[in-house]
């Protein structure tokens, strides 16, 4: 196990009815708020009216940027920064899923920065401060409600890049599972894949002597598997929705389940290049790419993949080699993704081989990626080809 320094400053208000606490929480951070949200579902469900009423009851002036894209655009972030600066906004509030929250984080760190916010994403600058940020989560997926990560797409350059900073952690996040009842099946699928792959990125590690962390990762994966299909079959199953919501938060909140372990994260970088060009949902891309990354790298530490197969998927190891067990676990992963409605090939979502070299080159723009197995351009290109 490696040494570690773990800090997570986000306050979580979890459970049915916690939305009622929003006005009180927001009022602690100022009298002018920028509200950011996605395509408008919060207006159809009445959530928008609830949120704005609570804010105005507290005397908070509300400015808005709606229509945040599923792969949030740099142009939207820049627009929101301009609005915030022009109106003296003191607090950012994101209502929605990972896209709305990621965009709001970029705005929060971008407002006090004198340069262009894209500088953070291309490693030209580091955030030194941020406006305070709060979130109301409506989609269980990314864990962005309790971490400092943000991913933004520069559509003009077809680049999708992530950035992380302690300054970007939300001050508070409201997690009411009933707000996810209206999430469509495809988004529930994408969220399920996303949270599982977040755990994978930490679990498939070369760091030795981490039994507690491994079992925490395995328990999150098992809980997701046990609840995802129930949520898809009955969208208003509170128990399933609550368990998925908590799993999404635990899967990626600054390293809680993997402190002392070195994660990999190559697959996320590989997928970002696909969705940065083709604008497919992040979870969909990961569902296609991650099992192929597994097949490409599993021999680097075959015993970890065998352990995963036995503990998570209950593969019977009797009479089998570690390789056979490991491959059975990888296949079980692929089968589960298919069972919850995820595609298995890039060709199914309109992605061909014409941009493989471009995507592979950009994925390793700053050098080889991954730690479980270091991947160069040729490795990444091969994983893309395996995914076609």
Q: How would you describe this structure to a colleague?
A:
- The protein is of the alpha/beta class and 388 residues long.
- The chain has 2 domains: 11-179, Rossmann fold; 184-387, Dehydroquinate synthase-like, alpha domain.
- It contains 15 helices and 8 strands.
- It has helices spanning 22-27, 41-44, 47-57, 74-87, 98-110, 118-121, 185-203, 211-233, 238-251, 266-278, 282-297, 302-313, 322-339, 356-363, 377-387; strands at residues 11-14, 32-37, 61-65, 91-96, 133-137, 149-154, 159-164, 172-175.
- A 6-stranded parallel sheet has the order 1-8-5-4-2-3, with helices on both faces. It has a two-stranded antiparallel sheet with strand order 6-7.
- A hairpin with a 4-residue loop joins strand 6 and strand 7.
- The longest helix is centred in the middle third of the chain and has 23 residues, at 211-233.
- The radius of gyration is 20 Å and the shape is globular.
- Residues 9-177 form the Alcohol dehydrogenase iron-type/glycerol dehydrogenase GldA domain.
